[in-house]
Amino acid sequence: MSEEKKGKAKKKKSKHTTISIPTPLYKKIKKRIEGTGFTSVSDYVTYVLREVLASLEEEEKEEVFSEEEEEKVKERLRALGYLD
Amino acid sequence: MITVIAIDALEYNLVEEFNMRNLKQEYYGKTDISEFSEPRTMVLWSSFMTGENKEEEILAKGDKEMWNTRIPHEETFFSHFENPFILDLPGYNYDLEQHERERRLLKEFFMEKDEEKKREIRKKYNENAFAHHRKIKERFLEALEGEYDFILGYFSVADVIGHLNFGNRMMMKMIYRDLDEIVSQVEGKKIVLSDHGMKAVGVFGDHSEYGFWSTNFKELGRPKITDFKSIILSETK
Ligand SMILES: [Zn+2]
User: Fold this and answer.
1) Complex ipTM, two decimals?
2) Which among A63, A74, A80 is the nearest to B168, CB-wise?
3) Domain total in chain B
4) For helices B115-143 and B96-111, what crossing angle results, to 10°?
5) B106 vs chain A: nearest CA distance in angstroms?
6) Residues A38-80: pLDDT tens digits?
7) How far is Cα B100 from Cα B96, in angstroms, rounded to an integer?
8) Reduced to 3 states, what is the DSSP secondary structure of residue B198?
9) Residue in A closest to B43 by C-alpha
10) What's the pTM?
11) Which residues lie below 8 Å from residue B2, measured CB to CB, with a gap of 6+?
């Protein structure tokens, strides 16, 4: 974050926070974003994390508990001793 | 010195699909558990630690009592070591209360009919499993710094979470990545071993009919889970 941004962040309420990542990973990302539209490692990391969270949420939303599968797995879990 | 990373329900096909290099190590493959009538966790780990097929003995206890199995130290190959560290292993010293809580929530989940409530129960079930995993992981990594001549850490998270979430690839990948990372922190000779794998039934997970093994020192072919006693003892002589 630039000094100027830090100054602004102090006046307003900061919309960003700091997280740490391993240095080798930082370097790898820095290299990867060369010549792309990303202007900083932070921007890239934010993009990737949003993507991951979106797919996780998507997967959870699409998920249905089918009664047929539930019966099948219940029977199996009984055979394995998990359910009585 | 040898370290065993015992992972319940680590599935060969997922390790391949996710290409988890640390879980795979130099040599890896499937174990042969076809001598057992079902891939039951308690039966398989008990057979592992004694080097004998314990199916008949464990099943005779019945489904409830089976989970309380405690095989005496002298009957396990761990007794060949002077100062072994065994962490949370079923049939030996695992946290009975924790694992009972898991089975209770599992039962609650299947008894519940309301979809929303089911999701809530599963959330609680997952949180409980992950909290236990974090604790075990910390204790295991601590033990790696200790003065032991044999270390075994048992990780149940892939099995417990898998039973209600195996269809969630992202979640399973996150768990496999975490386990992969744990293995990467172990130095020296190591064995990654699972009792059985897992296959999807919709969003749920059922046990598959083979286990997973890997080492960084030897090709093992298709070993039985009872072979590991002599494999480990011969490597440590
Ligand atoms: Zn299981």
Assistant:
1) 0.88
2) A63
3) 1
4) 160
5) 8
6) 999 999 999 999 998 898 888 877 788 888 999 999 999 999 9
7) 6
8) strand
9) A80
10) 0.89
11) B150, B151, B188, B189, B190, B191, B232, B235, B236
Closest Cβ–Cβ partner in A59, A70, A80 for B110: A70
From the CB of residue A22, how many other CB atoms can be counted at a distance below 10 Å? Answer: 8
Chain A residues whose beta carbon lies within 8 Å of the beta carbon of residue B39: 80
Q: Which of B103, B169, B201 lies closest to A73 in CB terms? A: B201
Beta-carbon contacts of residue A68 (< 8 Å; ≥ 6 apart): none
Q: Do A76 and B163 touch (CB under 8 A)?
A: no
- Nearest residue on chain B to A51, judged by CA atoms? B170
Instruction: Give first-to-last CA distance, chain A, whole Å.
Output: 58
Length of chain A: 84
Dihedral sign for Cα B104, B105, B106, B111, please: positive
Taking only the tens place, the pLDDT of each residue in B171-211 is 999 999 999 999 999 999 999 999 999 999 999 999 999 99
Phi, psi of B30 (to 5 degrees): -105, 150
CATH classification of the domain holding B27: 3.40.720.10
> In what helix (H) or strand (E) does residue B149 lie, and over which residues does it extend?
none
Cβ contacts (< 8 Å) between A52 and chain B: which residues?
A: 170
- Residue with tokens 């102090």, as numbered in its chain: A10
